[in-house]
Amino acid sequence: MRWWQNAVVYQIYPRSFNDSNGDGIGDLPGIIERLDYLEDLGIDAIWLSPVYQSPNDDNGYDISDYQAIHPEFGTMEDMDQLIKEADRRNIKIIMDLVVNHTSDEHQWFIEARKGKDNNYRDYYIWRDPADDGGPPNDLKSTFSGSAWEYDEKSGQYYLHLFSKKQPDLNWENKNVRKAVYDMMNFWLDKGVGGFRMDVIDLIGKKPDEKITGNGPKLHDYLQEMHQETLKDKDVMTVGETWGATPETAKLYSDPFREELSMVFQFEHMQLDEQPGATKWDLKELDLTELKSVLSKWQTELGNQGWNSLFWNNHDLPRIVSRFGNDTDYRVESAKLFAILLHLMKGTPYIYQGEEIGMTNRKIESIDEVDDIESINMYNERLDEGYTKEELIRAINVKGRDNARTPMQWDDTHEAGFTTGKPWLPIQPNYEQINVEAALEDKNSIFYTYQKLIRLRKENPIVVWGEYELVLPEHNTVFAYKRHYKNKTWLVLANVSRNETSLELPDEAQAGNIIVSNYDRDTIDLAKIALQPFEAIVVELKYSS
Ligand code: NOJ
């Protein structure tokens, strides 16, 4: 067993976590101040979104120096201190590795731009214009518009699958790969616990053939990376792979292939989108689809892979507002999604604020938006004839600022996040929803998370148990069992605001209630009645 197999990871988006110096931007000393809180929650590792030097075109995912800390976050000494202080609490720091692209202000790109003969030219992907002088092909950027940007000086285009300030690195160049591995070793030597690898499935791209994800050399590069950096180190790695299927996930995470520990798959996060369209083209979630997708991932990886489990991150809306109910049943539905996820097999990730049920942000106009993805989409679609109202609605539902509002620590000035003016406004509900209030209330969402983390540590069934979906066709109840040795646990969750009764095709009697989100100490399995957003985990007893 590897340490990350029974671990729980907590993601910090540093800009929005805790500001120690009053400039309105969260920072490393601010994180150190809150480590006791995270230790109390019980997490094992922190995935730290980027804190490197960056012009912040995409809030740090555009890196201009991988081996320097952005002054707004602190210094390299602060970083060393964070690693040390976290280690004292048995918490590992997982760095965000953003190596599909750099910033256009990275020294490599500054050099590359000087001309075709520059030694760094081939660190990036340059192509001549098409015959009509336009971009080499019609590849699109994730952040709207063409993925090619014209460079006047050399008369060539460079590739950027994200913003034009995020030129793609050319992984076919072995000097690029070597530079990345050296940089990774720099961080490993500092004692970090591993890497979350940003859009790593794009590094094997073949832009001329319009192949971006899953390129032919992708796994060769990851195996080489493993040999040059990760081998023999007791670290975890998780790749961000939007296009992963269980089959491709095994290629990344089969231990014998020596690539990554696990990947983030996003199939379950795309079920409220119209198939084949973009994230902005909304559709209602069908619970049976969610059950079937998550169950497929639970059962199909077998021993050749390991799941990552998550509902949230800095790119996704808040789960309680998205699939739950952030008004009448905020507490119940936040706990329900926690229970559903944390009883599954894999490594759970908690995104800051999820553990207190923070909600999505509501905006009324584009002037309130910070996120480059939403702004670019808005401008592009406005030109295409969409109305402002429908675009604002889509941003309210899916925009990335939803998850990026500052952490709500208490009910004082700016929710205790900063003594100054926060870079993104605090949510108006901070007086009710904040860490201090959660810690004082023994029935809070926080304590459900704490309990779920503890359950994983204390019960091998949570880590290793076989997963079995129950009642696959039921359209409001998500039910599954876990089996380990001669134990069975049943997880039942009513994902709706209506009471539901149901019958289980089972001979079992209810044993101990392991965890629940209503005040309940027994359940009659012969006639189950579930309250709105009720979730319960019960041990099953079989009489034989
Ligand atoms: C995925 C990151 O999570 C996202 O925030 C970023 O914009 C893109 N990759 C580009 O780095």
Automatic annotation (TrEMBL):
Coarsely, its chief localization is: cytoplasm
Which residues belong to the signal peptide in this entry?
none
Q: Which residues form the Glycosyl hydrolase family 13 catalytic domain?
A: 11-404
Q: Name one GO biological process term.
A: oligosaccharide catabolic process
Subcellular location(s) of the protein? Cytoplasm
UniProtKB keywords: Cytoplasm, Glycosidase, Hydrolase
- Give the matching SMART domains: Aamy (SM00642)
A Pfam family this chain is assigned to: SusG_C
**Per its UniProt record, what SUPFAM superfamilies does this chain match?**
(Trans)glycosidases (SSF51445), Glycosyl hydrolase domain (SSF51011)
Q: Name one GO cellular component term.
A: cytoplasm
**An example molecular function term from Gene Ontology annotations:** alpha-amylase activity
Q: Indicate the family of this protein.
A: Belongs to the glycosyl hydrolase 13 family.
What protein name does the entry list?
Alpha-glucosidase
Give the species: Alkalibacterium kapii
